[in-house]
């Protein structure tokens, strides 16, 4: 029972990190989370420690943990690694997607477009995470998927910064739409190119923001 509760809490925190529901530098207090979820501190601490081991959180186990702050160097390293593995997963997945998975991707793109029109940041990020991870999981390569999800746990909290410049929001969904059309046509190479363009375009935009924050 305790193991099951710990797993549930771990998955809830993990999904929040993947979808950008937590901010870089945000503190996560064990007692506060336990009170919010109506449980004792012990399973919360265990769930948080699993995320520390995965590099998604940092801090002292007996007090509070936090989402790591993002630096330009760290983000650049994460981006390089993402470019190396996510495009490959897309190309593999293109030939394996089921009709149900394609429908999920289509629904995600439509909801993301609607969220952008409403300026619903979290709604957009939820479906952005669902779109990418549904696609990557379809590659059916557990080794590749573990690498991708580990990277997303570290970069997900920084996705909120996509909305700090209004001009970026107008193009947020273009590459997803391009990738979806390629996937519908069964063109894995075109889908891979669209996703790599997505990572490169917005990754460079975020690197520029970090450079400004750090004085160049």
UniProtKB/TrEMBL annotation:
Record has Transcription regulation as a keyword: yes
UniProt entry tagged with the keyword Magnesium: no
Gene Ontology MF, one: DNA binding
Residue ranges occupied by any HTH gntR-type domain in the UniProt entry: 3-70
UniProt keyword annotations, A-Z: DNA-binding, Transcription, Transcription regulation
PROSITE patterns associated with the record: HTH_GNTR (PS50949)
Protein name in the entry: GntR family transcriptional regulator
UniProt source species: Pseudomonas cavernae
Organism lineage string: Bacteria, Pseudomonadati, Pseudomonadota, Gammaproteobacteria, Pseudomonadales
